Amino acid sequence: MNNKTLPIFDSHAHYDSEQFDPDREQLLGEVLPRKGVVGILNMGSDMPGCETTIALARQFPYVYGAVGVHPECARELPGDWLERVETWLQEEKIVAVGEIGLDYHWLDACPKERQQEVFAAQLELAARLGYPAVIHDREAHADTLGLLRRYRPRGVVHCFSGSAETARETVALGLYIGLGGVVTFKNARHAVDVARTVPLERLLVETDAPYMAPVPFRGQRNDSSLIRYVIEKIAEIRCEDPQTVANAAIENTKTLFHLP
Ligand code: NI
C-alpha cells in the first residue's frame, strides 16, 4: 500500500537532542515537511532543553513545544526551576507541561521521592494554569496513576507501556494514550493490546525521536517521518484504514493541545 500522503503530527519528539546536531536545520526545515510531517510537539526535558524547544518553536512554523523537567533530570535543579517553567509557558507556541513523570527504571539518575516531588509540583502547575501535561511513566504505573488521580490534569501518557487495563483506567481519567515505535517491536504484547483496545478518539501517535525507531529501523536514529510505520501497524492491529488512524491522531493532538 502506498501511504506517501499520510499526514503526520508527531506528538512527542526531542529535536533538541545532540543526535540532531549534524542536520537539525535541514531535517526540520526541508526533509520532514516534504515527507508529510505537518506538526511536531517538541519536549523540553531539562532547563537547556526547554530553551532549545522554545527556539525551535520560534524558528519553525509547524513546531510547537512543551516545557518541563523529566524525572531523569530532576535530581539537581536551580532554586527557581518551577518559576522558569511557568514563565516559559507564556510563550505563544508552548502548549503543554512536559516531559514530566516517574521513571523507576533509572533510579540512579534520581531517587523516587525526588521524582515524585518534581512531578507533583509540575502536575499542580499544569492543573492550576490549565495546560495539558505530557507524562512519562516507566515501571511506575501505580504511583503515576495515584498522582494523576490527585491532580487530574488534562494530558497524555506517552510511550504507553502499561497493560490494556491500565490504559482503560488512564482513559477513564480523561487522559490520552501515546503510542510509538514499540507497537512494531516483536514481543510488544502490551502495546499491541493497548493499540487494539484504546478508543480511537483517545489515541496519539509519536516518535520519541531520536529514540524508539519503529521496525524496520529499530536501533537507528528515529525521526517524525517514520511515524508512518507506527500508524500502519496500529491500523493493521485495529483492522482500520491507515488514513483513518492518521486523521484521528491529528484531530486528537489538536484537540488536546488546543492547536489551530
Ligand atoms: Ni520523550
Describe this structure in words.
The chain is α/β, with parallel strands linked by helices and 260 residues long. It has helices at residues 24-34, 47-59, 81-88, 112-129, 141-151, 164-172, 189-197, 227-238, 242-257, and strands at residues 8-13, 37-43, 63-67, 94-103, 133-138, 155-157, 176-179, 203-205. The chain has a single domain (8-257), classed as Metal-dependent hydrolases (TIM Barrel, Alpha-Beta Barrel), CATH 3.20.20.140. Helices cover 41% and strands 17% of the residues. An eight-stranded parallel β-sheet has the order 1-2-3-4-5-6-7-8. It starts with 7 loop residues before the first strand and ends with a helix. The relative contact order is 0.15. The mean pLDDT is 96. The structure holds nickel (II) ion.
Query: Helix/strand/pairing class, anyone?
Result: alpha/beta
Shape: globular
Say what the CATH topology is: TIM Barrel
Instruction: Give the low-pLDDT segments.
Output: none
Domain count: 1
State the gist of this model.
The protein is α/β, with parallel strands linked by helices. It is built from nine helices and eight strands.
